[in-house]
Specification:
Order of helices and strands: HHHHHHHHHHHHEEHEEEEH
Radius of gyration: 20 Å
Shape: elongated
Structural class: alpha+beta
Distance between the termini: 6 Å
Strand order of the largest sheet: 2-1-6-5-4-3
Strand content: 15-25%
Helix content: 40-55%
Largest sheet: 6 strands, mixed
């Protein structure tokens, strides 16, 4: 999008800034906080001294995110149970058109968590948004040669851990519908048939709600745990519905219009291989439709 004199550059580039922050942090709430801090910084700046507002804002977002990532690593060491990124409702158009779709998947965000803060920043800026090494060096105040080394290291790390999955949208829709039907019907055998022999399930309850504090392995264990959760009195009234979450079809658990959980998964060879169940109520703000608006591709 080209800059227009009648539009505040921060407003003009907000979707880009949100996408950058979300991919660096894996948190909708933290990304919004960073945007607020960047907005305050921007409006305290002498605008005439800023020749390239977009670059200035991306640099501000990047450095604010690095500060957050550094402190977050210490916090997550004491996190109760598995830590998963915050899910974000996206649109079909976003999943098809935006260049962020591949790296915004929950599976990829989990991989990005294994990078150092600087590696993650460089990877997102280079591989997702296409900034040159020279531009990133300017954002980070580091030599270009150093940024190139970091970029190569981060890309190799991600490629070795990049999740493999089926890209067949029709198959994914069919599996999603069968999964929801089996859960609603309490059919353990039907559910087990959808799961790969090496299936793993991660639950993020953050100590706020009941959730398995270690990964669950195997079709029998995973299926029985899922149906056990659905059968609990606290789950009364919960229904499952399909939704595009982090650029791919997933499942929302809802009571009325209120989302109480999000389930994303990898489909490999026609079966579900990895399940990621986000239950922490503090990490569900991105499941409100308004939050997804931030991720839609910008249009002129």
């Amino acid at each position: 999008m080209s800059h227009r004199e009648d539009v505040d550059p921060f407003v003009e580039h907000r979707r880009l800034l949100f996408g950058t922050a979300y991919q660096m942090l894996g948190s909708v709430a933290d990304a919004e906080d960073v945007l607020q801090d960047a907005w305050l910084k921007w409006h305290a700046t002498e605008r005439n001294s800023v020749q390239h507002p977009k670059s200035y804002l991306v640099r501000a977002i990047t450095n604010l995110c690095l500060n957050r990532l550094t402190s977050a690593r210490a916090t997550r060491e004491t996190y109760i149970g598995p830590w998963l990124p915050e899910p974000l409702l996206t649109t079909t158009d976003a999943a098809q058109e935006t260049e962020m779709a591949d790296t915004v998947s929950t599976a990829m965000l989990v991989v990005l968590e294994t990078l150092t803060p600087v590696e993650r920043a460089v990877f997102v800026l280079r591989e997702v948004f296409g900034y040159s090494h020279a531009e990133i060096a300017g954002f980070l105040d580091r030599p270009e040669a150093t940024v190139r080394q970091i970029s190569h290291r981060a890309r190799s790390h991600v490629q070795s851990r990049r999740p493999r999955f089926d890209a067949d949208d029709t198959a994914r829709r069919e599996i999603t519908e069968k999964f929801m039907a089996a859960c609603h019907g309490g059919d353990v055998n039907a559910l087990m048939e959808l799961l790969a022999p090496e299936v793993t399930l991660w639950n993020d309850g953050g100590g706020k709600v009941t959730a398995a504090r270690r990964p669950l392995y195997g079709p029998d264990h995973v299926a029985r745990w899922m149906l056990g959760v659905m059968a609990k009195p606290v789950s009364a009234g919960i229904y499952l519905e399909p939704a595009v979450i982090n650029g791919e079809l997933g499942i929302l658990g809802k009571i009325g219009e209120y989302a109480v959980g999000a389930l994303t998964f990898d489909l490999v060879g026609g079966r579900i291989e990895n399940l990621r169940f986000q239950l922490n109520p503090d990490k569900l703000s991105g499941l409100r439709p308004a939050a997804g608006e931030s991720f839609r591709p910008a249009t002129d």
